[in-house]
Batch of 3 targets.
Target 1
Amino acid sequence: MDKLKGLETERENLLRRIDVLEEELKIQKKSTESVEKKHESVQQKEQVKPLTLFDSISNEELKIKIDSFIEEIDQCIEIIENK
């Protein structure tokens, strides 16, 4: 009888321990999910670069625009000098 009582007590203790371990597992899963979401968020932010004026223009196009701008400045300087 004492042996049966001891086994029942041990069973109850094991069930309580299982409950505690299940709770710890739930907490760990939530923590892991949170870290994974943060990691994904960081990866997405790293992938998205802000678009600047020069990102949409090729080097050749940029050179042409700069040359054109320099010509306009030169023309303005000539006009000012001729006045």
Note: Residues 1-48 form one domain.
Target 2
Amino acid sequence: MTYDFDELIDRTQTDSAKWKKYAGKDIIPLWVADMDFKASPAILQALDKVTREGVIGYWQIPDELVEVTLKRLEERHNWKVPKEWLVWLPGMVPGLTLTCMSVGNDDAEVITTIPVYGPFMKAPVAARKKLVKVPLKEENNRWTFDFEAIKAAITPRTRIFMLCNPYNPGGTVFSKEELQTLADICLANNIVICADEIHCDLILDETKRHISIATLSPEIAKNTITLLAPSKTFNIAGLGCSFAVIPDDKLRARYADLRYILEPMVSAYGYEAALAAYRDSADWHQQLLAYLRKNYAYILKEMNAFKGFKMLPLEATYLAWIDVRESGIENLAQKLEDAGVGISEGEFFFDGKGFIRLNFGTQMSRLVEAVERMKRVLERK
């Protein structure tokens, strides 16, 4: 079956967070990480089935969802995971916060690299931990770790390293060597790794392969909480279904206990959509990737054609990270909104001042129109 990713979906009359931000305005929203494509037919049918049954109470984890998730981990991550290691969650952000609450005392420190997805900054604070920020570095036309800076930031109170892989923003797919070096540092200092891998099925560079850091060795796995979800890949973030893989028994028990008292259960819709995504939506996923790669090639060319703009190649995600420091334009985000394009300002990602993030997970025609609008306020090289 061929899926029509060019189909324009009118979301202006819905309560979509992405579109409602600009309600009543002629602004193309390219900010939050939410694609404008219909979910796969299998997912829509699964949601319809739950609705037609008419009674929507508490839902247990479908046995088949567990089976297909474990199969997916083995086939795509080369990771044989016992079902007991899974902890189901109503979202990725709660998973980050639970990690920070589960590990260390109130005076413990959490390291993360910046710029990074905003909740990485908030989760440690919510858990009464001290946040320590280490900038990434640009090297060989990509964003990567500054290992010397990471080692310098570690103290006896450091208990968690929060890893985003693939990286948001910036799109880096970290290599086995990079991950091994990071893991060795964490093991040597008794630091638990929290790995957010939510973008792992959105690889744009076909020469790259996602590696879960926990698969590097049994010792690293026991020291890692891995967070995964179908939400970004299959465009079902609004349904709230994620999971953590936690090999260590004591850590998993603590994590699960906190989850039980602090977070809502995953809904019937979340579970059934996740099952349909992982079991029945592989063709949709492959066609999505092909479409996103075309969008990416277009946006990479166009952004680098603007004077003072610099966009490094992306290895993953549908989120362009663009350096606009040399543009000399003050209040760029506001000027783009005035021209009819809504983007994410770099400040949201901490240490991202002078950058913008642009979501190209939309129809090509809409993307072309957005670029044409940007040309009204930006000078070409």
Note: The longest strand covers residues 158-164.
Target 3
Amino acid sequence: MSAFTQEDRSLLADSINRFVADAYGPERRAAILTSDEGFGRAEWATYAELGWLGIAIAEAHGGSGGGLAELAVLMRAAGHGLLMEPLLPTLVQAAGALAGGGSAAQQAEWLPAIAEGRAILAFAQDNAAQDEAPVIAEATGDGYRLSGRRGFVLYGAAADRIIVKAERAGQPALFLLSPTAPGVTLAHARSIDDRPVSDLTLDRVQVAEADRLPGGDAALLERLNQMAALAVCAEAVGAMQAANRLTLDYLKTRTQFGTSIGNFQVLQHRMVDMTLAAQEAAAITWAAIGAASIGAAETLVLTAAAKARSAAAARLIGEQSIQLHGGIGMTEEYVIGHYYRRLMLLETLFGGAGWHLDRLGGWTAAGIDGEKA
């Protein structure tokens, strides 16, 4: 368990919010969006100086020894401030994989580099909500040969290493891969919210045994997927809360027929629905994070419930915030449209509402509770 207190987390949230207010305003964010890399290298270095990048890395590797709860504080602030830096793949997925399944040598090389801002790592795995062919790891005399394709690798273009999930002798495995290795092809694009993504193609890419994470098994992958899903939920909560605040402010200031449109009852009802949706998503998200932080048996069920609830809320709040703003909502210059696009991406990452509700329904029909799911 993390040694951080609730006061520590509040101070962390305050420091991130101050940074966003002081140094991540609309002009700076616009410059980042139009840059070649799609995120701020200077900001990444600042995050390292402020200790954010090592927040969940063990003290032995230069971090602060926090855990998922502290990462969730960071991710919620990232959603609220629309941060563009590679927090999810590097801090949650890659650092989590290395800490939970990496060798001592891999941890010693990469965890301090992440905490100090010297390394960016991406994570490439199949989409659980889609039926994708696995990357195959074929054993060779001195390592493995990887072949296959992975789409939508966040920040693949900037990564110093990509952790790739592959199938090894019929079982899942994780490999540290250099993006410049022979046989690696990356095709770059931007996601709906302008984050850089890549399609990764592996054509008989040779990796050494030392590049395999020895503890990268199915149990670790399940924990990583839970962590990533909850980090996405926390980010969505931050974005939803910010979108609701902007929409409420707009309803109070926009006038029509001589009065504020916020006085129209039908719009008040919509705003109430949006507020309740964000509160419900936040409540189940923090409950799931609390369970995951102590390894509670019900973590898997709560994670699915949190992702289902936050995905549905993200869709509702994203769409309603645009409708209540009218045409101005989709202009590039007005920030509510950026929150909408962020929420549309977060809705689908690690499974949408329908996929997680199907899982919950299947477990219920089979009589499987939180301890057995």
Note: The chain has a mean pLDDT of 95.
